[in-house]
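Before the break, one more example. Copy the sequence into your notebook; we will annotate it together after we see the structure.
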Amino acid sequence: RDLKNLVILDRIDNPAAIAELKAINPKVTVTFYPYDVTVPIAETTKLLKTIFAKLKTVDILINGAGILDDHQIERTIAVNYTGLVNTTTAILDFWDKRKGGPGGIICNIGSVTGFNAIYQVPVYSGTKAAVVNFTSSLAKLAPITGVTAYTVNPGITRTTLVHKFNSWLDVEPQVAEKLLAHPTQAS
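Here is what the structure looks like once it is written out:
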């Protein structure tokens, strides 16, 4: 509704996807900035300063980075949870009403595994539970910060994320196949 600007922050520049987004509504300005959620908060704040200087206001942040590979324990935690916390922390510098900010809305992408773990991937499931709990705390802080927060917790979605991935300590070598045997949704 009345979207003026859409800013995509991602590690991968995908001009075809940007063009597709622009074609949906040519009145919306779509901009891409390279961004890795695992960078330190100071780098995120620097990028946000650039974005806020250009746009003046940003109303919504959708935190949607994620990986599913329990062999990469540190990276899974860094991308799925720490990066989300750092990005949220950085944008609060601009939005927090205690600092004169206008407030904003944060939508963190969780997963149903945040409520019902996939036991073969406890690291991934744990990060999504952390996202749910972090966001629940943020939501309760809204009267103080002026920032509304909620999670979207999709079920199994047919993306490259779930076609092939590694279970924790190889406890289930065919976890991807077993997962995809359940009802799924399109991406």
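The domain at 35-156 is CATH 3.40.50.720 (Rossmann fold). The first strand starts at residue 5 and ends at 10. Try to locate both features in your own notes.
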